[in-house]
Description:
By secondary structure, this protein is mainly alpha-helical. The chain has a domain at 3-102: Multidrug-efflux Transporter Regulator, Chain: A, Domain 2 (Orthogonal Bundle). Helices cover 58% and strands 6% of the residues. The strands form 2 sheets. The protein has a 3-stranded antiparallel β-sheet with strand order 3-4-5. The longest helix has 18 residues, at 162-179. It is globular.
Amino acid sequence: MAADDVDDTPPDTADAAVQRLYTPAMLAELLGVPVAAIRRWERQRTLRPVRVIRRLSHFDFEEVAVAQRLAQLLAAGCSLRVIDRRLAEISRLLPGVERPLADPRVVVEGRRLFLRLGEELAEPGGQLLFDFDQRQLEDDAAEPPATIAITAAHRAGGDDSLETLVERLQQEAIDWEDEGQLDRAADAYRTLLMAAGPRAEIHFALADVLYRANDLSAARERYYAALEIDEEYVEARASLGCVLAETGELELAAATFAGALEYHPDFADVHYHLAHTLDRLGRRDEAAGHFETFLELAPESPWADAARDRLDNAGLCE
């Protein structure tokens, strides 16, 4: 399915379509990368979901292959900003190729991208296509994200539109996330909310940063804020359920997960988390049912073995 064909089909008409697909959380777990990286690559259209249901993206095996190449570069020491620039460069060098990382001729070796020409790995002129040398990586790591304040942005460019300002603030927040500066990222998202007004996706992004910073109470409130704007935001419901479960509010967590399934019955991640929560509550029969549903929906998930183990040891509880 082309990116323009991605839809928001109600889940009751998309049951078969979402089976054996990967949500952002599953894909991040599979590749060992932060889920924020998956969302970043999706925003940039480097990764393209084949289906979107209630704001929740689903990726197929073709997208997994692209994501694996991105994860290789990340694991080799390239920052997300370095990868962004190199992707822009390869797109300019291969103008006829819409998605270079989906092209089998493009090969990832360590920090480098090569173009396969027969048995050789080179660019058309015989040079190495890209070389992520250590000096460049150190320069990129030392470069801090630009700090953009609302008043400063307006002084620098008085005719900037609000949406341009919002884009700049959002990029600042993302850059701070990439740097691991979660407090600054949270401040940037708060500034973004002041500039753009309340938006469910911004509250959700802020909640994720707060969750990563282990500020569970604040994360919980931001997930609630996202849901107040869009009650069908199933990924926010799932994340809220995880926070509640982590803080020991198991009954409330189970109800939150169940609420997410009312909007998206085939949300595999939620079946998995709900099963664990019910298991902790001693409701083992119900838990087993959700583990089984999870395995039907996502048998190739990185969590599938854990679910099978729980079913094999149904008498045990976390």
